[in-house]
């Protein structure tokens, strides 16, 4: 569940972005700050997703607020999705799934065999990376072809986030059930 909380800034950004881009960015930044501080207090280390979301939403909120207030919603969504895709995908390619830092905090997963623990985390990390990849493609299409409707991109984002959240909450439990017979 800590992993899903780590994505709270982006989930809120996705939901609020249709109301107001600025509201969505500043809310995502504030949420990333709270999540990062909370996690740091619980375990004095900074996780890639937490610090990445904090920096990403700080830069986007400040950039849109002070440098380019006319940056479109589609462009902001594309930058956010592409940044998170790269942030999560590169460590996965290097054999270090980002979800490991969250899974180690879960006492239920601490006793798993190393191979199962790593496989589950590779798949969970891959699910989130794929979700952000799909969102980046959809948002990029809307950004670079202004004739495409934004609601299609938003729908893809919501479905991708829902699929990643569902997989994250169900697959480790299924793996544990198989482990325990």
What brief labels describe this structure?
single chain; 181 residues; mainly alpha; 81% helix
Shape: globular
Low-confidence stretches: none
Terminal CA distance reads: 23 Å
- Number of helical elements: 9
Largest sheet: none
Describe the 3D structure:
- This protein is mainly alpha-helical.
- 81% of the residues lie in helices and 0% in strands.
- It contains 9 helices and no strands.
- Helix 2 (8-16) runs antiparallel to helix 3, helix 3 runs antiparallel to helix 4 (48-67) and helix 5 (73-93) runs antiparallel to helix 8.
- The longest helix is centred in the C-terminal third of the chain and has 31 residues, at 114-144.
- The chain is globular.
- The mean pLDDT is 90.
Topology, element by element:
Elements: H1 2-6, H2 8-16, H3 21-42, H4 48-67, H5 73-93, H6 100-103, H7 107-110, H8 114-144, H9 150-180
């Amino acid at each position: 569940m800590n992993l899903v909380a780590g994505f709270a800034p982006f989930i809120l950004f996705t939901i609020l972005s249709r109301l107001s881009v600025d509201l969505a960015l500043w809310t995502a930044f504030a949420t990333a700050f709270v999540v990062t501080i909370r996690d740091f207090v619980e375990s004095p280390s900074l996780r890639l997703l937490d610090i990445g979301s904090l920096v990403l939403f700080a830069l986007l909120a400040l950039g849109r607020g002070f440098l380019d207030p006319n940056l479109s919603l589609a462009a902001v969504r594309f930058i956010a999705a592409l940044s998170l895709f790269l942030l999560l995908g590169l460590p996965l390619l290097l054999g270090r799934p980002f979800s490991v830092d969250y899974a180690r905090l879960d006492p239920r997963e601490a006793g798993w065999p190393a191979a199962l623990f790593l496989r589950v985390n590779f798949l969970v990390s891959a699910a989130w990376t794929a979700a952000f990849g799909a969102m980046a493609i959809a948002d990029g299409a809307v950004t670079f072809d202004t004739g495409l409707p934004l609601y299609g991109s938003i729908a893809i984002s919501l479905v991708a986030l829902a699929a990643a959240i569902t997989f994250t909450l169900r697959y480790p439990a299924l793996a544990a059930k198989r482990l325990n017979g």
